[in-house]
Structure formats: C-alpha cells, structure tokens
Write a structure and sequence with these properties.
The complex is a heterotrimer. By secondary structure, chain A is α+β, with helices and mostly antiparallel strands. Chain A is built from 18 helices and 20 strands. In chain A, the strands form six sheets. Chain A has a five-stranded parallel beta sheet. In chain A, strands 12-16-15-13-14 form a five-stranded antiparallel beta sheet. In chain A, strand 1, helix 3 and strand 2 form a beta-alpha-beta unit. In chain A, helix 3 runs parallel beside helix 6 and helix 3 packs parallel to helix 13. Chain B has one domain: 3 helical TM bundles of succinate and fumarate reductases (Up-down Bundle), CATH 1.20.1300. In chain B, strands 1-2 form a two-stranded antiparallel ribbon. The longest helix of chain B has about 30 residues. Chain B starts with a helix and ends with a helix. Chain C is an alpha+beta fold. Chain C has two domains: about 110 residues, Ubiquitin-like (UB roll), CATH 3.10.20; about 120 residues, Fumarate Reductase Iron-sulfur Protein, Chain B, domain 2 (Orthogonal Bundle). Chain C has nine helices and seven strands; from the N terminus they run ββαβββββαααααααα. In chain C, helix 2 runs antiparallel to helix 7 and helix 5 runs antiparallel to helix 7. Chain C is elongated and about 60 Å long. Chain C starts with a strand and ends with a helix. The chains are: A alpha+beta, B mainly alpha, C alpha+beta. Chains in contact: A-C, B-C.
Chain lengths: ~650, ~230, ~250
Amino acid sequence: MSILDSKAPAGPLAEKWSKHKASIKVVSPANKRKLDVIVVGTGLAGASAAASLGELGYNVKAFCYQDSPRRAHSIAAQGGINAAKNYQNDNDSIYRLFYDTIKGGDYRARESNVYRLAEVSPLIIDQCVAQGVPFAREYGGSLSNRSFGGVLVSRTFYARGQTGQQLLLGAYSALNRQINAGTVEMHNRTEMLDLVVVDGKARGIIARDMITGEIQKHGAHAVCMCTGGYGNVFFLSTNAMGCSGSVAAQIYRRGAYMSNPAFVQIHPTCIPVHGSQQSKLTLMSESLRNDGRVWVPKKKEDAVKLQKGEISANDIKDEDRDFYLERRYPSYGNLVPRDVASRAAKERCDAGFGVNAEGKAVFLDFKYAIDRLGRDTIEKRYGNLFQMYEKITDVDPYSNPMQIYPAIHYTMGGTWVDYNLMTTIPGLYSLGEANFSDHGANRLGASALMQGLADGYFVLPYTIGDYLADEIMVPKIETTLPEFAEAEKSVTDRLSQLFNANGSEPVDYFHKKLGMIMWDHVGMSRNEAGLKTAVSEIRALRDEYYTNVRIPGELDNLNPELEKAVRVADSFDIAELMALDALARNESCGGHFREESATEEGEAKRNDEIGCYASAWEYKGAGQEPVMHKEELVFENVKLVQRSYK
Amino acid sequence: MSSFMKSSIGKKFFMSVTGLFLITFICVHLSLNLLLIFDDSGDLFNMAAHFMATNPAIKIMEPVLALGFLVHIIWSFVITLENRKARPISYNSGDKVLSPIAPSKNMLILGGLVLAFLVMHIAQFWWKFKITHEGLTAVHVMQSGVSVEMENAYAVVAGLFKSSALYCIIYIVASGLLGLHISHGFWSALHTIGWNNQIWRKRLEVAARILAWVIAVGFAIIPLYFMIKF
Amino acid sequence: MADKILNKLYIKIWRQKNSKSQGAFETYELENVSQGSSFLEMLDILNDQLIREGNDPVAFDHDCREGICGMCSLYINGEAHGPDTEITTCQLHMRKFNEGETITIEPWRAGAFPVIKDLIVNRNAFEEIQQAGGYVSVGTGGVPDGNAIPIGQDDAEEAMDAAACIGCGACVATCKNSSAMLFVSAKVSQFAKLPQGKVEGKRRAKAMVSKMDELGFGGCTNTGACEIACPKAISISNIARLNREYLCAKLAD
C-alpha cells in the first residue's frame, strides 16, 4: 500500500458519506469549548468553515490578508453554482452531477470525494437561500437555473453575474454573526508566513501584521488552509493580485504533500492581453457562451485585415465566419468544457486566424442571440458583464462582438488531502481550491463555488471532529514552545534575507519573468523539452531573485513590496513543482495537454495505463529534488472512456 | 425615546417633521398673502388677518409654530456641526460629483438666509401687529351684513411694498431662497420619514420642484404686483 | 486599434508614512503611459519608477482588479473612483485623462476611516457595522428547501440591487457628511426585501444604525452624491427604506 491513505470508505458509492459520518468520532459541546482551530483565508471555504466551526462551539481564529473577509477572491466568481436539485425536471440527479464532474475532470479525481460533493450540493442552495442570498427567481417565485459548459442539464443557480459575490457575502454574514457572538476572532490584514508543526501535528501558524510588521505566533489544536489556488504563478491571470500559492508552498515545505500541481485551468473567455503594462486579466463569465457564438474568419486574408485594423468584425459575412466550436463539436458546440474551448482558440490563433493586433483573440458574438431574443433579454442576462467589457476595452459588445482569449483562471491541483480533507500533516486541513480533491484535471464551470461551500459548511465541520476527538486532553497550545520560536526565526530570517538582498530589480520584474516562463512552457500546451527548460529556468531565476531583488520601505511598517516579495519567493517553489509534475505526467488529460499525447486531429489523448493517479509531491529540503508519490485512482462506479464532446 | 432622539435618523426625523409642518404654515401664509393682490381695497386681506388674529385654534397653533421654527433652526445647526466633525480633513481636489451650488449641499446657508429675512419680516409685521401695534389704524369691514371693526393690516403691508423698492427686492430674493430650500427640503423630508422608493422618487422630486416654484413665485408676485401697479 | 500614449502626466499624491505621522502632497512626473492601461497599472508604473530611484513606492489598496472585491479606494480629481461612472478605481482607464494633466490622488477622507499609510485607509468601521447585525441569524444546516418559500422576482431583483454593494466606502468618501447611510441601507434593504431577512428586520435596523452612529459617521442629508459615486449604482431609495425600517422599529419599542 502506498503511504497515501485516502481513507475513502468502502461500500456502495451512495452510502459512503452516510456510513462515514456514522462511524467518525464526535466532540462533545463541553470539549469543543476547549479546542482552538485556526482558519486561514476567508473565501467561500474559509468563511463557511470558520462560521460553521464557531457555531459548533470551537474557538476559532480566522485570518485574511485583505482588510475584510468579504474581499476574498471567491467574490469574483460570476456565473453560478451547481447543485443537483433537479428543479428543472430535466433528469438531473446526484449521480449525474457526480458523473459530469468526474468526466469533466477527465477521470483524474477521487470518486468518493466527488460523489460526496454532488451529494451535499443541494444543501448548499438551501443554506444560502436561508442566509438571504438573492438568487435569481422565476415569476412564480421559484429558483431559476441556467446551463453551463460541459453538461446537458440546467443545474446552475445564479445571482446575476455576481454569484460568487453573493455566496461569499452570505458566508461572510454567517462569519460576522459568529464574530459578534465571540466564537470567531477575526484577524484582518494579517498574512500567514509559516506553519508550526509540533510532534508531527499542525499546532499553529506564524503570521505578520501587515500594518505594523509585527510577527505573531498563534497556537491551535488544528489548522485549516482555505487559501485558494496558485494561478498567479503565471503573473497574468484572472486571480486577484494577492492570490498566491504562498501558503501552499509554506505547508509543502513543512511536510504537506502537493498534489497534481500541473493541473491548471485556462479559461477560454477572458479579455485578451493588451500591451505590456497589463497587471491582470479579466474574465468574462462562461455563462456568456450560452448565448454567444465563438468564431474566427474562415479566410486568412480576412484575419490579416482584422489584425491590421483594416476591417472590423461586422464587415465579415456570415458565410465567411468559422464557428469552429460548433464545427468541431456539434453536440456541445459553444458549451464544450473550458479546457477544450481554450485549446481550440489557441489552435485557431496559432494557425493565424487570431482577430486582434497581436493575433491572440477570437470573437464571441451576441449578434445572433440579440436577433433571436432581443437586446432587452440579453441586457437582462448579461448587462453587468457587457458594461464591464465596455469599460475595459472601450468597445460596445452589443454592436461589436467581444474579443476573448484564454487565460489562467483556476488551479485544480493543490495540497493532497484524504477523504476527511486532512493533509499529510495530522491536524492540518485544506479546503476549497487549495486542495486537489474534486475537480481532477479540469473543473466544470460553476463547480468551484460548490466545492468551497461544500467543504466549509458540510464536510469539514464533521470530519474535523474525528481528529479533534482525540485532542480533547491536549491543553491550550502555548506559543512558548520551541517549535514556535524556530518557525518564527525561519520567517524573520527569510524576510531579512529578501529585504537585505539590496538588488536592483523590483519584485514584479521577477514575477513577470516567471510568468513568461510558465506561460511559454507550462501553459496550454506542454512538451518534454519545454518543461525541462522551464525547470532549469525557474531554478536559475529563483537563485537570481534572492540576490538581486530590491525591496524598498521598512520591515516594521506597511510594505506591499515586502508582501509581494514573500509571495513571489514561494511562487518559485510552486512553479518548479508544476513543471516537474507536468513533466512526470506523459499523457494529456483535462487542462494538462502534452503534445506527445494527442490524436491525429490534435485532440487530447488520455492514457489511463500510465496516468490514472493523483501525484503527491514531498519536499525533501532546499536544493533537493522533491519526491513524487502516487495515489492510484480506482474507479469502481464509472467506466473510463475517452472524453468526447463531438 | 432618548436613544431615538440621539440617533442620526432620529435627529433628521425631527428636522423632517418640523420642515413639513413649516411648509404647511408657509402654504397657509401664502394663500392669505395672495389676497393682497386680489382686492386693492384691502378688505379681503384684513378680514383674513382678523380671522387669523381672533380664531382660538390659530392662537393655539402660534406657539406650536414658534416651537417648530426653533426646533428646525436649532437642530439644523446641531446636525451640521456634527456632520462637519465626521470629516476632519477635507479634500484638496474638492468635490466634482455635485455642483457646489446644489441646494442639497447648502441647506444651512439657504436656511440661514431665510432666517435672516424671517427676523426682519417678524420685526416689520408680526412685532407691529401683535406687540407694538405701531402704525395700525382701525377699519370697518362689512362681514355677513354686519360692520366689524378691525385693524388695517393691509395698509401696513401694502404701504411698505409701495414705499420701499429695496424691501420688495429683498422680499423677492428671499422668496427665491425659500423656494430653493424647499426644492430639496420637501422631498428630502418625505424621504427621511421613509416615504420614498424607486417609483415615488421621481414623483416626489417633481412635486418638490413644483411646490418650490409655487411658493417662490407666489410670494414674489406680491411685491412685484405692488411695484408694477403702484 | 492601438491606444494613444500619454507622454507626460503629473501625479499629485497624498503621502503619509503611517497613521501617526503628518501627511503631505507630492507630485511626480510620469512618462509614456498607454491610455489602454488601467489607473492602477499607471500607479504600478509609477511605483516601479520610485523603487528603481530608491524611493518608497506609493501604498494603495487593491486586489481583484476587476471591480468586485471593493478593496481599491482612491479619490481622484475630486471624485471617488475617479472620472467615470459605475466603476471602481481598478476599472478606470487612462483614456479618461489627457496629455500633460495633473492627477490629484487622495485617500478616502472620513474620521471613521483613518489613514494607515499613503492612500490606504482603515475601513474596520464597516466590519463593525456588519458584525452588529448584517446577517440572518441562521446556523449551518437545518434549513428548509430552497424553493419552500417563494420569493417574487421583483423582490429578488430589488434585494439583489441592494446586495450588489461591494463595501468600498466610496459613499462615505463622497458624502459631504461622511455618512455611511448608503452602505448600511444596502444591507438592511437586501434583507428587508426577503422573507428570510424580515424576521429580525427591526433588530437589525436598530443594531446597525446604532453602531454606525457610534463609529463617528455623519448623518445623511439626502444630497444623493453617494449614489452617483457608487460603483454599483446602489440607489438612495434604500436609504428611505432604512429610514422606514428604523422608524417602525423604534415606534414598536
């Protein structure tokens, strides 16, 4: 047996979670009061977990680097949240949501976890409605649904184009209620910088007060990482500026295994990169593909004219437009999963059919939907997205098609966790995007919100009891323990090392360079030679970073450059793992496309002989090669077939 | 109740209620004053003035009205001072969102100017009518077939308008200021007591504008009438 | 469609080392800024220049850079979030500015939002208001089916209009009284329009207003500046609803 024990319960799929809940331990209310839990991050997973744990009676300390928990990047999710409610009577079910998620993830996720996710999904909608989340409604007062990429039923609940915001504000309000009740102690503008492990168990964190620069020690009986993904390794992504894999890297160096870091989602509908001064890419919700048709010109000469700005999209006749998604995938059409849509866009642009000056954009056209449904309907559905597009690009998407191009959006990979969401460090949990568990090699639209809330509201509050039940005799964790002093010293040493490098280049210079390496070699299309180049370039850049970075300001004052410097330093470690993981996985699956593993038509070719595993990377020390362990993925309930959306 | 009076909404509630009350008074006042221009003999106006001076209900209302004025004026200073404290450092680049002369931003100034006029106004009329009776003569007016003796208020008012162009101009300007004050004050008062929503908003704003014009023009027309005719 | 380049800009910025120190304006010259850049990217360029010159870069709040997290907070040329409507600073683009222009950038100014450093202010007061009552008192689990209580589309839409608030503080920054009424009313309105929130509507309105007053925000004088500055176009009709809720709650006491 591998050293990775998934603790997935035996038995029929549909009974696993109920049986597991019945068999795990529960902590009595009197004992919960004696137990401290730290929650890092206050997005959907963190806020829902902190609120739920606080309500159960644990003493919770929650941390976020922003000035308010409400600002976590879950807020930016636009389109919706999936749930197997079958309100539409379109033959949706828990099994179908499970199956779609497994298939959408290209059979690289753990069956038991995914089924549980589908199983608790209806509860999330009920919970959010009860909290006052203003979901879209039909005239009769019932909840409204829309369809999303990669599935054939309508199961996506939404609140205009701000679903993530509304769900996060729901969780935030639950959190506020607990803060008011005194069960949760909130630490805003406080960033975790290291994990403290005592006798092999997670016992606390080292954090920095971002206003005063004070280094703080916080002890607890268990620690939960709800810190999101690591997409900003690419510099340009749809993530918030502060999103980083920093905490993932910190706990990885402390012994938590990192799983499937190569699995990154490239979202097909983002506003294209524009010039060299850009700091961030903006996502246009996937829901737009419900009514927008994706196309590029059929004729090369039209594309060239578009690139030179000699003609505009509306000058090209319908018969000269290549609706390549509808052409290649007639059954799913514009609603193919994200990885497929992204690669198809890249294929057309690489072939010279790109439609902007850089040749790196395709059209998303609403002309046909406006003709069919009227402008009012489209405005009602997507008004805020259209407004956002116009503000950024200065182009009116009602009269001209949008230009879109794929961009880094989400990371399916993350810290390895077992069925209880516990990492390889006992007492350390990882929730939401931060863990690897539910989306395999590709995430379906509207499933990230579902997973974050499922983990925080309905999974962790149960599973953490199983661990904490054995900790009730452990007194309050004192931060005077030598392990805290050691961790604090390692943090202060690291800060001084970066601060005193006194080099000549600002942090962003390195971050941009790292992003270029990643986009070129560990992006939408990967091959062995490129990945090897990436590994060596990342290592070289990291060495240069520690000697040539320049951090202005002071250590003991608010210092955004210092904050960034730490995050970027951690990004190098994650970037290296991503390249190594991509190199090790010599097959194409989901968002991971290896050129060596493709069909003659250029479609991704999965190889279950070699790829049916979740990787788990173990840190072996600075300068040492990390070691990959494998959790073999066993599929007892679904038959592995080559994904087809044709 | 005390917590309500101390709360920001509570304080505003009193401003609103007194404001609406004062608007009612002004409407009554305006309708009486307009009698000045409908009967050059002054009988109509004198009868109305006599009615107001002798009716017991009006007698009771007089101190209430005074209280309304006092609360509205004192509260406005209290609220404005408190609101100023909420921003200890002001902006270097000013405020480009609202016009600097928007009535909503200048209610204290508008109200203060109206108050200055009010003081003069009281000294010139109310004080004479009620306290000193200076310059008031008696006049007989036929009421329901009976000749009733009453004070000739018309002579005082019309006399002042006929004799002093300066006073007429001040009166016209004050009418305008009052109109501006009410153009914001009326809908704002209803808004503060909770009577507003997306649909009513437009209606109330239009109503406030109409009311403001009626009051401003209504009062201004009286001195204009005397200036032009006499 | 290449964007025009602004050859020269003068950036006048409030610099303040920390909450205790005195601040002052400093003016920096900046060259070659594309009009296609966002306002914050312009500040990135300025900061890159400052760091390379060995100076302390300008501290400003920002995170999502897509107008939804509510972190960014600049008062630009006399307007919160700058010279464009229904956007946050991060969505403001340099095409709104002209060649050779002096751009004045100030932090939100309100006694309840003290400056932490440069352009960063402390908005904890908003947190305290939300914690005082900005929630429905429902625990995790044990709730009815999502469709058990029908909610009319109009009510849901109106609740959503109010719920769109991102908590940036532009309303406070713009209001001549630094009043937080629009912020508070948005939350109270969202819940007042929904059956789930109505249950404790009175308690919520009283708790949130009393916390707001305690924290030193000014009172609302219905100038309507807040809704013009609001990046999410939250209407002051919500303030009328808050007034109504509050007055009814107080009457019932």
